[in-house]
Backbone:
């Protein structure tokens, strides 16, 4: 799959811009602050309905406007698909597929697939657990779009349950509220079980690719791994109700721990475990006024050799781990493409300026064979020779067509 044309209206700094693209490597060159990242952000948003730079939609709208439009023509084999996404300031976002009637924005998930590398990726290693949970969930939705509803359902139930717990902390909790909390426990247990089950399966798919990608980018002296740590296991162990589980370990990619035991359970079994965990944690949750158990508090621990990457990895190792996570997600998508899915578009947004020469060349060699690679750079010399291809000059407000080559 590749993106053939991108059109933006009132998106970020662009009143209107048209960008024609082709398979292979395209490098967008322009000074810092000129708007290169805005173009890549729009493509990424079309794929995930979220920005890699901001947490809300408001900054995506050009200042003083009420809506922004992203239009894209995607080509997969002999098939062409036109996507239109309307981002609104005061109402729900809407989308169109091949100029049909408007649909919910999330109905276009899975049509455009991207893997986006950006300087912000450092948060995947150095940031708090929410960055890693978001990484998992965005990849999950790209692979299986119906899980957008799974995540939305869980977030809705979590919000309602937290509101009830806050009422208890404020002294407004009665026996009637207790019964209501039991009902929300059931809803949250089911939604949480579905999300946890999907995440655990995804981590199992990611783990060997993460190890392989890190070896490709480095000298191979350390193994890279990932361990999913669930609050569910801790709550059950605290209550003494946990099934037998191996000890928590951080020995690398082959480590076993609580998540591996949970992975063997069905959604129904995980639902029952959550119900038990909520009961075990109820007094603590009522005291604190917040839900303490669930996928919203889980952690994806990244491991290098025998130590956690966070706090122990050097700057270069941190960058290699971040790049390896993105490459691992790319390889997982390629696995799907071989069984009928679409190979993702690779986007490298101002990444090469952050890397040393060795890592630049290794990353370029890995991604150069992708169907479509979009790269941004302030300095063209930062782009390794392995990524030879079309060059596009980005200027204030648009594209310099005369300098495209």
Residues:
């Amino acid at each position: 799959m590749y993106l053939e044309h991108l059109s933006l209206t009132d998106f970020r700094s662009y009143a209107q811009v048209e960008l024609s693209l082709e398979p292979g490597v395209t490098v967008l060159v322009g000074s810092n602050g000129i708007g290169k990242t805005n173009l890549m952000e729009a493509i990424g948003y079309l794929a995930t309905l979220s920005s890699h730079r901001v947490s809300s939609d408001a900054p995506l709208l050009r200042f003083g406007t009420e809506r922004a439009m992203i239009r894209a023509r995607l080509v997969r084999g002999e098939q062409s698909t036109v996507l239109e996404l309307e981002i609104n300031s005061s109402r729900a976002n809407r989308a169109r597929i091949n100029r049909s009637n408007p649909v919910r924005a999330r109905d276009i998930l899975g049509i455009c697939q991207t893997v986006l590398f950006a300087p912000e990726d450092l948060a995947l290693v150095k940031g708090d657990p929410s960055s890693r949970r978001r990484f998992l969930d965005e990849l999950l939705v790209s692979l299986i779009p119906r899980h957008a509803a799974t995540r939305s359902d869980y977030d809705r139930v979590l919000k309602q349950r937290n509101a009830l717990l806050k009422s208890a902390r404020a002294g407004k909790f009665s026996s009637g509220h207790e019964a209501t909390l039991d009902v929300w426990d059931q809803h949250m247990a089911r939604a949480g079980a579905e999300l946890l089950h999907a995440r655990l399966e995804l981590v199992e798919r990611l783990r060997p690719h993460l190890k392989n990608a890190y070896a490709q980018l480095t000298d191979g002296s350390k193994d890279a791994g990932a361990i999913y740590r669930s609050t569910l296991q801790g709550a059950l162990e605290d209550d003494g109700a946990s099934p037998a589980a191996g000890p928590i370990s951080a020995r690398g990619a082959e480590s076993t721990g609580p998540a591996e035991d949970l992975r063997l359970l069905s959604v129904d079994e995980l639902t029952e475990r959550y119900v038990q965990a909520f009961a075990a944690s109820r007094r603590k949750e009522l005291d604190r006024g917040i839900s303490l158990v669930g996928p919203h508090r889980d952690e994806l621990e990244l491991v290098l050799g025998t130590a956690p990457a966070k706090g122990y990895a050097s700057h270069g190792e941190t960058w290699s781990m971040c790049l390896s996570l993105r490459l691992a997600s790319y390889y997982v998508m390629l696995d799907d493409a071989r069984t009928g899915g679409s190979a993702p578009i690779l986007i490298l947004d101002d990444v090469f300026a952050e890397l040393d020469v060795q890592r630049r060349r290794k990353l370029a060699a890995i991604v150069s064979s992708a169907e479509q690679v979009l790269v941004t750079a302030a300095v063209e010399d930062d782009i390794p020779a392995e990524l030879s291809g079309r060059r596009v000059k980005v200027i204030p407000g648009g594209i310099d067509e005369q300098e495209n080559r």
